[in-house]
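Researcher: I've been going back and forth with a colleague about how DNA replication and repair protein RecF might be arranged in three dimensions. Neither of us has a model we trust, so I'd like an independent prediction. The organism is Gemella sanguinis, in case that matters for your notes. Sequence below.
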Amino acid sequence: MKIKTLKLLYFRNYLSLNIEVHPSLNVLVGDNANGKTNIIESIFCLALGKSYRTKSDSECIMFGEEAAAMSCVLEKNDKMLDIMLGINNKGKSAKIAGLKKTKLTDFVGELNVVLFSPEDLQIIKGSPSLRREFINREFYQFSRIYHKYYLLYQHLLKQRNSYLKDMRKNPKDEFSLAYLETITSQLVKIAMYITKERSLFIKNLSKLAQKNMLNISNHKEDLELKYKSSILDMLNINSVEDKDFNEENIIKKIMDKSYDDIMRGSTRIGPHQDDLEFFINKLDAKMYASQGQQRSIVLSLKLSEIDYLKSKTGSYPILLLDDVLSELDRNRQLKLLDAINENVQTFITTPSISDIKEDLLKKAKVFKINNGTISEIL
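Model: Here is an independent structure prediction for DNA replication and repair protein RecF. You can compare it with whatever you and your colleague have in mind.
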């Protein structure tokens, strides 16, 4: 898939923008705080329906305005698609090919992206929520079923936690416990699906990441990814294929610990508590990986995302590189830039084009960004 044109209206510091982009490489050059990242962010919004920089959609609207809009013409499977996302203080509106999508889950995934930003370098040693967000973001782009199930899981989890808080006054009431078991049963059904899907995803992604890591490290470092499931840990098993991984067993184990959940007012077991682990040469990367090794792991992960999305959707995703070249040494820069080819449309933000190989620039468009205005310089 390739973006042909990108339009913005009242998005961040862009009053209006309308550009034709290069099918292979687009370099966005400019000083910090001039709007380079805003363009990357707008493309991400068109893919995932939300920003990666803020939880508040209203922050994407230009100061003093009531709404913002972004749209692109996407070439996909030999067809041209118009994709549009509007944001105002009341919510969002989305269209694909002129047809309004009432649910965001029916919009997300039409445009696929792989984002690599400086914040991603925290994925190894940062909080588990960062790693869960990484997993969910990937799924949302190729599985609308997973997206809908995860939203349902969050809804049921909120219900259960609310009921747990209500039960604190009388934690051993039989009627209340019976109803709690009903809610738990509903939650477990969805939790099992999510756990299975995530486990398989990480197993397959690990193979790709291992291959990329060996390439980046000149076969010196072996990388393995493992999905750490709170349900599997509770059952003391290693795989979703184990016979003990069944609905009846999981419900019983969770209900056995219900008193602790009631006292805490929250659910301690489930996909919302899970994590992703990285092992480099059999050692836990969170504990033992050097800063350089962490960068190699994240780079391997991002390159693996490209291949994985291609295998699931049939099209290469758009690669968004937000000011990461300065975070990588020359060897890792070259490994990343080697991934850029005619098949993978790429957008790079950088303060200078000196880090980008000359042969790449010959097949690129270079845009100068200055305080919300954009001009093509190459």
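Researcher: What would you highlight for our discussion?
Model: I'd start with this: The chain is about 40% helix and 25% strand. After that, consider the following. The CA atoms of residues 366 and 377 lie 6 Å apart.
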